Amino acid sequence: MTDVVSNDVDDIVKRMQKAEGVTGLIVINSDGIPIRTNLDNSTTVSYAGLVQQLVGQSTSVVRDLDPTNDLKFLRIKSKKHEIMASPENGYLLIVVQEIQDSESQA
């Protein structure tokens, strides 16, 4: 990874980790290898593999509906967590965020 890309990734990671409720952050390269994370190894590998598959399938759906379109962001909300994934320039950024109490009661 070039120094410029590495600095950009580091800046994004630092900024995202400061966001309220963020419990996990993973950056995956184009080979599917996690290059940055703040989670333990088994959790990182689990999220990375499953979310990467889901992003791949979602990308296919978007392109099947409109071949000129492309997936930019995927957001999954469950009772406990919100998982956000953003593919960009050969990388996949995955953010895991806890649902705030006021949101989960609504």
Annotate the secondary structure layout.
Layout: H1 3-17, E1 22-28, E2 34-37, H2 41-65, E3 74-77, E4 81-88, E5 91-98, H3 101-105
Antiparallel strand pairs: 1-2, 1-5, 3-4, 4-5
First and last CA, distance: 43 Å
Specify the number of helices. 3
**Proportion of residues in β-strands:** 25-35%
Structural category = alpha+beta
Q: How would you state the average pLDDT, rounded?
A: 87
Helical content class: 40-55%
Number of strands: 5
Which spans have pLDDT < 50 for at least 5 consecutive residues? none
Q: How are the strands ordered across the major sheet?
A: 2-1-5-4-3
Describe the global form. Answer: globular
Order of secondary-structure elements: HEEHEEEH
Q: Specify Rg, calculated over alpha carbons.
A: 14 Å
Largest sheet: number of strands, sense, barrel closure: 5 strands, antiparallel
Describe, in plain words, how this protein is organized in 3D.
By secondary structure, the protein is of the alpha+beta class. The chain has helices at 3-17, 41-65, 101-105, and strands at residues 22-28, 34-37, 74-77, 81-88, 91-98. 13% of the residues are buried.
